[in-house]
Each structure stands twice: as structure tokens, then as C-alpha cells.
Amino acid sequence: MPTLVSHPDEVKVISRRFGQGAANIDKYIELDGYKAVQQAIAEGPEWIINTMKASGLRGRGGAGFPTGLKWSFVPKQSEKPKYVLVNGDESEPGTCKDHVIFREDPHAVIEGTMIAGLAIGSKLGFIYLRGEYRYLLKIVEKAVADAYARGFLGKNIFGTGVDFDIITQSGAGAYEVGEESALMESLEGKRGVPRIKPPFPAVVGLYGGPTVINNAETIANAPHILLMGGEAYAKLGTERNGGTRLFGISGHVERPGVYELPMGYSLRKAIYEVAGGIKDGKKLKAVVPGGASCPVLTADEIDVGLDFDQMAKAGTMLGSGGIVVLDDTVSIVEFALRTIAFYQHESCGWCIPCREGTDWIKKTLTRVYQGGGNKKDVDNVQYLAENMMGRTFCPLGDAAAMPTLGFVKKFRKEFEDYIEGHKAGTPIITVQQLVGAGH
Amino acid sequence: MSEVANTIFSPELAARFDHLVTIYPMRRSALVPMLLYAQDEVGYVSDAVVTEIAQRIGLLELDVRNVLSYYSMLRTKPAGKYNVQVCTNISCMLRGGYEILDHCKAKLGIGHKEVTKDGVFSLEEVECIGACCWAPAMQVNYDFHDNLTTIKVDEIIETYRAGQGKDVK
């Protein structure tokens, strides 16, 4: 675990070392490891940031913010120490790409953290993994210890006079902590609730110092980009969406797995060719294209390119790249309920629209699912979700509202038929675990 | 030597904690991992654990409890020796996560967050564990088990019952 898969259409940049035992430092070095960081030290911060800007790399955590630009926002002069924080709190349902990176290529994350540190003038980086990833934390901890033993981390790294340290950190189970300001709170030993913005972390972040926070996949891309050159990386993708990306394809496909595809790759091909099509020859019903928070696409909406802009144009999001495929046996009512049950469970409760909204949507959908709904319920759910949008400190409120709106707008008839069907005396499906975890 | 007398942790864990509070720019940053590691050793975050961790970091017990109550992996009651966590979130649900959970309930004779009478197993239905592409999946303590079938679950549980599974530590 995890089982590695591959397909001829893959373009392997970040996954280049997967399956080759690169968690071992010698193997990593043999496969060009720690070359990029030495080059970064020689060339300096401006070169790093310019290369990252040229690469067109956009944040892989979900928001898609240009990485080079993010790094350039950190003030050059700062009274407080600057920090790099790697977000490995991967908890978005449908997403398991960082899992593979930490297991197969932990040194790439370490090297990327060092590069980000050099770019912004930081001497301390944190790699924060979700608590459930304990076995991966051990792999990363071992990799960090090996890097220290070689003199790649600590004082005077590579004999260049530069100092850089990395601390590995464990979470303890909270989806909310994947949000950057909540992540900082958690790392400071507090409840992981979001901070108000501005100020943004680039200016006031961890311990009040300027901080760059990047998703683990974003960070792990940095060494590859420096080695191959920003322009070469950019060319792999589409305009404004540089490079490749790890896509986790799960659900009802024949060959689920994490695949590295160029940005802009066809979603249809990703499902039907790369992942082998719909499981057991069934028909496609819907796709959640980028993790649970992304609005659903119907079977006839999958002719779209997998990049941030094309997905936005299609009314959804690329998100964290977790493509969840549903065949035509899935009840959207049940699927929507399971999705909102997750957000209700994971809402940190800080903002009322999210705390109350997720709860009311879950209650309403539960009643519908149990057979006690009426048509007004669909409107109510839509109303609740619409009123959560943009009204919370962090994007969790939106993340819960967006898929909900997608389900009720695109599958309204199914909700209504479901409600009517039960009124007409159709037997109610028995589900023991009605409303998800945590009760 | 720590300024706090160690009363409940093993010497190894106490030494780890002594080191942990020194590495961060702020001591308090050690809190979440300390609670987790203490739980792994003691079995849960007991009152004594709260007291000692509060002292080690220099926090009020209330501060510790405030954090403790937030994170879903931290528990204030003992779990079984082997804590079985079955994921039923969307990717697992689509590939039979609920069937796996039902099977575990029947097999172990316990429900969500319950412990078997002999204290060997506890069961939890959990949110996404990041194994979506290898669904359905579960974790026993921190060991991932993926591509599950009910037959595979039986084998896994029997392995643990026979004392051959990996412990938390």
C-alpha cells in the first residue's frame, strides 16, 4: 500500500522516482536528488523565484494560486524569522496523492522545502502530516534524519555557509487544519480554527513571522522544476497552467490509482483510458472532479480539460485533483448526504453559516433520504447552501456549499422523484449507517 | 533532565517529550503531537496525561483540554488494543465501505466507538483516511489495509487477534 499504477499517457515529472526506492537517500541522490537545492544555493533567491514563476506552477492544494508569485510576496526584510510550512494534512475526500509522494519520494518534499526556504530567506521549515499518516511520518522522519546525517540539513549545508532546519509535525485529525491559517494555529498548539485575513501568511504567518505555506505536491515539484527549467516545465501543461499534476482517480473505475497527467488532459480520457473506464461495464452517471468540495459533473459534461481555468469554465473546480467516478447505480441523494455529513462533521464551528448550514443541510437530506421529505426540501437545501457561500472566514463553508448546490441543481429531478417515490409508497431503502461518521 | 518529574510515561517517551518541547520557536507547538504520542502509549488521554503535558509545556490544563476536545483522533476513554477504523467517505462508500463497516460490526459484535469485552478491539467509522484510490480501506492503529473484501477483513482481524499485528508503538 499504496499500489502504484501507470499508463502510457502519463508524463512523469513528480512521479519520476516513484517505485524506485527513492525513500532511501542514496537512491534519491542517484536519481538526481539534492542537485536542485545546490543549484538553488549557487544561483540565489531571485533565480529560484523567476524559475518558479516561469514554470507556471499553481498550488496543488486546491486553490491554484501561482507558486512563484506566492513566494515573491514574502517581504525580503523582516524583523521576525521567516518560515516554510508544508501542508501534508491531505484530508479532502477523493484525494490521496500526497500519500504516494510521502511514501515514494519523501526527499523531494524535503528538498522542495529547502528550495522554498532559500527563495524567501527562511532558515526553518515544517512538514506537517495529518495524524492518520503515522506510517508516512516515520518515513519522512527517517528521510529528514538521513539528510541531517549527510550534512544536507542543519548548519552550513553542503558546506556553503547556509543554515536550514526542518521539523516534522503530526496533526491529530481535523480536515479544517488543511486550511492554511488553521494549519498555523494547529502547529502553534491550538485548536485548528482559521484566522481572519488579511494579514496574509506571507506577511504575518507562523509565530507572527512571514510564512510560505504550500501543499506537499507543490513543494515536491520545486526540485524537478529547477532541474528541468521553468519554461520546459510550463510547456508540459496549458497556458496559465504549467506542468503536470498527480490525479487520484477513485470510485467506480476499473483501475483506480494516482496518475501523473499533463495539465489540460481530457477528463473523459482520464476516466475511460487512463483509469480503464467504468467498473464492470456499467454506465457513467457523474464525476466529482477534484475532491469532495468540487461541484459534480454529469456524464455528458466530461469533455473538459483538467486545468484550473477549463474546470472553472465548466462550472466546477480542479481542486486537489481527486477525481471520484460514480456509476449509474449510485443514488445522488445518498451520495449528497454522505458528502454533507463529512462537512458537518468537519466544520470547526468557528463561523455560524458553516456550523449551522452544514447541520441543517444534513438534517434535511437525512429526512429526505429516510423517505420523509417534501419537494420544498430541495429548495431549502439550495437556500441554505447559497447562504453559506462567501460568508465564512475560511473556504470550508464554500467547500460544503458548492457540491451541495451542484447536486441539487444538476440532479433536482432525482431528488424530487426520490421524494415523490417514497410518498407513493415505494419501499424505503434500509441503510444502517445513515448519516456518516462520528455519531 | 526534564524540569517535570515523569510519573506516567516510559523513559523513552519522557525523553522524547523533553526533546520535543525544545525544538520549536514556541513550546506550545509540541502540544498536539505530545497528546497523540501519549495516547499511543497510555491508550487514551487520561486526566494524568493532561496534567503532566500541561506541566511539561507550561500551559493550564484548561488550555490542553481545549485543544484535546478539538481533534478527532484524540480520545479521553480507552480504546481497544487494536483500534479498527473503517472509512465510509465517498470513495470508500462507492466501493463498499459500508459493507466493510457492517461486516466489522457483526464480526466484532460492537458498534461505532465501542470496545470488545476483552478489550482487544475497538471499532470506529471514520472520515476520509487518504486511501481513496485503494478503497475500501481501513486502519488498524496506524496500519493501512486497503482494497478490502469481507474475506480480507476476516483475515486481518484474525491476524490481530492472534497477536501478530503491529502495535501502535
Automatic annotation (TrEMBL), chain A:
TM region(s), chain numbering: none
List, alphabetically, the SMART domains matched.
NADH_4Fe-4S
Under which main EC class is this enzyme filed? Answer: translocase
What task does this protein carry out? NDH-1 shuttles electrons from NADH, via FMN and iron-sulfur (Fe-S) centers, to quinones in the respiratory chain.
| Catalytic activity of the protein | a quinone + NADH + 5 H(+)(in) = a quinol + NAD(+) + 4 H(+)(out)
Name the InterPro entries for this protein: NADH-UbQ_OxRdtase_51kDa_CS, NADH-UbQ_OxRdtase_suF, Nuo51_FMN-bd, Nuo51_FMN-bd_sf, Nuop51_4Fe4S-bd, Nuop51_4Fe4S-bd_sf, SLBB_dom
- Protein name (Swiss-Prot/TrEMBL): NADH-quinone oxidoreductase subunit F
Q: Does the keyword Iron apply?
A: yes
Q: Which EC number applies?
A: 7.1.1.-
Family affiliation: Belongs to the complex I 51 kDa subunit family.
Alphabetical UniProt keywords: 4Fe-4S, Flavoprotein, FMN, Iron, Iron-sulfur, Metal-binding, NAD, Quinone, Translocase
The record ties this protein, via Pfam families, to: Complex1_51K, NADH_4Fe-4S, SLBB_2
Q: Which cofactor does it need?
A: [4Fe-4S] cluster; FMN
NADH-ubiquinone oxidoreductase 51kDa subunit iron-sulphur binding domain span: 333-378
Query: Key word Lipid metabolism present in the record?
Result: no
The domain of life for this entry's organism is: Bacteria
Matching PROSITE patterns? COMPLEX1_51K_2
From TrEMBL, chain B:
Q: How is the cofactor bound, in the record's words?
A: Binds 1 [2Fe-2S] cluster.
- Gene Ontology terms, MF aspect: 2 iron, 2 sulfur cluster binding; metal ion binding; NADH dehydrogenase activity
What does the record give as cofactor?
Answer: [2Fe-2S] cluster
User: One Pfam family of this protein, by short name?
Assistant: 2Fe-2S_thioredx
- Amino acids binding [2Fe-2S] cluster: C87, C92, C128, C132
Q: Which UniProt keywords apply?
A: 2Fe-2S, Iron, Iron-sulfur, Metal-binding
Under PANTHER family, the record lists: NADH DEHYDROGENASE [UBIQUINONE] FLAVOPROTEIN 2, MITOCHONDRIAL (PTHR10371:SF3), NADH DEHYDROGENASE UBIQUINONE FLAVOPROTEIN 2, MITOCHONDRIAL (PTHR10371)
Please give the family membership noted in the entry. Answer: Belongs to the complex I 24 kDa subunit family.
What is the protein named? NADH-quinone oxidoreductase subunit E 2
In the UniProt record, the gene name given for this protein reads nuoE2
